[in-house]
Amino acid sequence: TDGKPDGASTGVSDAALRQAALEAADRAWDEGISIYAVYYAGNSTSPGEDIAYLRTLVRGDGTFQATPDPDELSDLVWGVCASLPLMLVE
């Protein structure tokens, strides 16, 4: 994710979208689902704020990974996948 909610097209405020994401993360964790986040800073003007928010979504055994380099995204996602006790296949 780029860490930015996009409620402009739906008429929902960014704050409401952030709150909904927190509630969804809590519901997932209540069901035993860990939440992982991978953040690509890109040309964000507020990466520190984005990172702080996204870290609040991580639950259970989940981790947070961040990079300003799009070439690192694939490795970060595969690293998350490799840490899971299940096998992913293409």
End-to-end Cα distance, whole Å, is 22 Å
Major sheet summary line:
2 strands, parallel
Helicity, in percent?
Answer: 40-55%
Order of helices and strands: HEHEH
Number of helices: 3
Strand order of the largest sheet: 1-2
Portion in beta strands = 5-15%
**What's the β-strand tally?**
2
> Cα-atom Rg, whole angstroms?
14 Å
The rough form would be described as globular
Secondary-structure-derived class: mainly alpha
**Low confidence ranges:** none
Overall pLDDT metric: 87
Kindly describe this structure:
There is one protein chain. The chain has helices spanning 14-30, 47-55, 73-83, and strands spanning 37-40, 64-67. The chain has 90 residues and is mostly helical.
A few lines on this structure:
The protein is mostly helical and 90 residues long. The protein is 41% helix and 9% strand. The chain has helices at 14-30, 47-55, 73-83; strands spanning 37-40, 64-67.
Blueprint (SSEs and pairs):
Layout: H1 14-30, E1 37-40, H2 47-55, E2 64-67, H3 73-83
Parallel strand pairs: 1-2
Essential attributes:
single chain; 90 residues; mainly alpha; two-stranded parallel ribbon; 3 helices; 41% helix
